[in-house]
Design brief:
With 320 residues, the chain is an alpha/beta fold. It folds into two domains: 123 residues, Rossmann fold; 183 residues, 3-Layer(aba) Sandwich (Rossmann fold). Helices cover 37% and strands 14% of the residues. The protein is built from twelve helices and 13 strands. Helix 5 packs across helix 7. The longest helix has 19 residues. Bound molecules: glyoxylic acid. The site of glyoxylic acid has 6 residues, from loops.
């Protein structure tokens, strides 16, 4: 099997106990050509969201039985092409829900209250006195949170916002989430209504053709100028040029992005130099507990797939 990065030890040990592991032990992902060469001849591939697993790779890797993605999202994998070739696809849902919701909430508060800009001002020696009008942010309690994509992570964030901060919860999703409606009195509304009425908007939708650049110039224009936008899902849900315009033209209070398009974001990207935009390097699931649990599931999915058994968490058509 080919493992494209050093996942945490608990996963590597589990894999090494049952098979030969060819590990790409570098700090950055294998280039696509290397990924193809190292995967060909393997029955299992443990991939990260930074690895493109497409039909061309699958055609070159005819022994492959399973692709185990070390992530809950799987937009990097052509699942349809895998299913068509009888290759199982695994992912790691559930175990990173709370860690991701924590980071979304952290970005929400930090962006609403200008935390990074305030710290930068201290580091620059600009803290002269207590400022009655300095760094005025947005009040969280009793605000309206708009959740775009009310799945596990959206629900976990909505729970924090409603139960902890008394927020009213709106959500946009192709499906009704009955738990959210019962437990949090969440209201399902069309996306445009959510954008217009929310004080805080957090994205939790998968990246699919229907959601790509869903937060475009028109969507940003629909938001309140006092709103805060948070994205811990996938960078390509947001048109970053339009976001830059909204943030610099006073049409949006602030944004907190844990994901960008592309990743990594270029250091000269103007978004990075805005005082009202926070960018973190896709760290939402980066807690020891979440990453260990992801490693265990990804390893188990890989082993089960190699053995021709049903995966613990599979996507696409069932092949085993
Ligand atoms: C991270 O972005 C994941 O999909 O797990």
């Amino acid at each position: 099997m080919f493992v494209t990065r050093a996942i945490t030890d608990v996963g590597l040990e589990r894999l090494r106990a049952v098979c030969d592991v060819d590990l790409w032990d570098e700090a950055t992902p294998p280039p696509y050509e290397t990924l193809v060469v190292r995967t060909s001849g393997c029955v299992g591939l443990l991939a990260l969201l930074t690895d493109r697993v497409d039909a061309a790779l699958l055609d070159a890797c005819t022994d492959l039985r399973v692709v185990s993605n070390f992530a809950v999202g799987y937009d990097n994998v052509d699942v349809e092409a895998c299913s068509a070739r009888g290759i199982a696809v695994g992912h790691t849902p559930g175990v990173l829900t709370e860690a991701t919701a924590d980071l979304a909430f952290c970005l929400l508060i930090a962006a609403a209250r200008h935390v990074p800009a305030a710290q930068q001002s201290v580091l620059r020696g600009e803290w002269r006195t207590w400022e009655p009008r300095g760094f005025l942010g947005r009040h969280l309690q009793f605000g309206t949170i708009g959740i775009v994509g009310m799945g596990r992570i959206g629900m976990a964030l909505a729970r924090r916002c409603h139960k902890g901060w008394g927020m009213h919860v709106l959500y946009a999703d192709p499906r009704t989430n009955e738990d959210a409606e019962r437990e949090l009195h969440a209201q399902r509304v069309p996306l445009r209504q959510l954008l217009a009425q929310s004080d805080f908007i957090s994205l939790h939708a998968p990246l699919v053709p229907e959601t790509e650049y869903m937060i475009d110039a028109a969507a940003l224009r629909a938001m309140k100028p006092t709103a805060v936008l948070v994205n811990t899902a996938r960078g390509a849900l947001v048109d970053q040029d339009a976001l830059f315009d909204a943030l610099t033209q006073g049409r949006l209070h602030a944004a907190g992005l844990d994901v960008t398009d592309p990743e990594p974001v270029a250091t000269e990207d103007p978004l990075l130099h805005l005082p009202n935009c926070i960018v973190t390097p896709h760290i939402a699931s980066a807690t020891v507990r979440a990453r260990d649990a992801m490693a265990e599931i990804a390893a188990e999915n890989l082993i089960l797939g190699i053995e021709g058994r049903a995966l613990r968490h599979a996507v696409g058509r069932r092949v085993n």
